[in-house]
Amino acid sequence: MTAFLEFAASFASLCFALAMGFAAVRMFIGPAAQDRVLALDVLYYNGMLLLLVFGIRSVSTAYFDMALLIALFGFVSSIALAKFLLRGEVIEP
Amino acid sequence: MSAVPAWAALPAAILLILAGLLAVLGALGLLRLPHFFERMHPPTMGTTLGTGCVLIASMLVSSGAGSRLAVHELLITALVVMTAPVTAMLLARAALYRSGRRNGERSRE
Fold it and tell me: Among A32, A47, B58, B60, who pairs with B8 as Cys (CB 3.0-4.6 Å)?
């Protein structure tokens, strides 16, 4: 059963890496700026999931902290970029 | 990965495979669909349901390996549930504003 879990973790890592590749391609060819921001959103999200799968494979809690930090800073960066696209500046006086 | 019991390993493996398929389908939709507002839909499937599956699998594995209940992944779940709609709404508003300005209309505040 542990071998099946190992196979599933490898398959999920491969899928998340493939999703990160697709998001990177969309970030390069995206016609408008909001496409690139959306692709960056998907990219950091899949990176967070990849770190969680690494944490499942090697049973440790260090990957959990990294995933939490990626989720937090990714949210902040996406909000800042969307606010910049919407208003032209991030922090308004 | 050594001492995970079978009652935790089997659902965790199934949830991991499901999450991987959802994530790759969402990213493929992000890559293939023609317009921005269509491209906003598919990754949300991977990010919400896929994240839920991975976090439940992580909870199962860490609970089974440590022989005690480990629910600290609920912190990421709460963060994701609170922040994903905010990001999507702000991006949609920014895209609406930018497309309206490009067509020469007056932007609505």
Answer: B60
